[in-house]
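Hi support team,

I submitted a single chain yesterday and got back a structure, but I'm not sure I'm reading the token output correctly. Could someone confirm the output below corresponds to the sequence I sent? I've pasted both exactly as they appear in my results page.

Thanks,
R.
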Amino acid sequence: SSHFCSRHRAERPIASRPRAPASRPAGAMSVLPPVIALAGGGIPRPVWQLMPEISPGKAMLGSIFLFNAPHMVRMFLMHKAANVIKNENPRAQLAELKGHKAYGEMISRAEGAHVNGLESFPVFAAGLLAAKAAGVDKTLIGKLAAFHLLCRTAFNVLYIGFSTPAPPAPPALT
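Hi R., thanks for writing in. Yes, this is the structure output for that exact sequence:
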């Protein structure tokens, strides 16, 4: 492993590697949650106490419903925009309708929320199954699963329903 790293560094120093433009500071999303947890933060107690305890199986079914809900919203909006859903080439129709004057932006956001749910489901399901297999307290698993479903619901509503401009990218540090 160290041989690969030293060889890689020798070929191209880190400072000279091309970087993709960042829309937010690098690592901000990956560092923030652990820092909050280490500082004693987390789910506020009143919210935690309101969370029901649900089984991992029901949580996975709920998550499946929640990652498919934006797809149904998108299909509804596509039908509203075009009056017909073309099953022979739905991806071409989706690409075309993303440019629709009235519904295009919301169709794009609904598609994005659906894809985000598809991407996050395997990690959520694996986490539930691993916690259960490791013997983690059922109440903790059930309440965290319920909180995840609440957050997924909020994400879907906010992501599809509202559009805000992205903050400007910070200047490059070179």
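A quick pointer for reading it: The chain is about 65% helix and 0% strand. Let us know if anything else looks off.

Best,
Support desk
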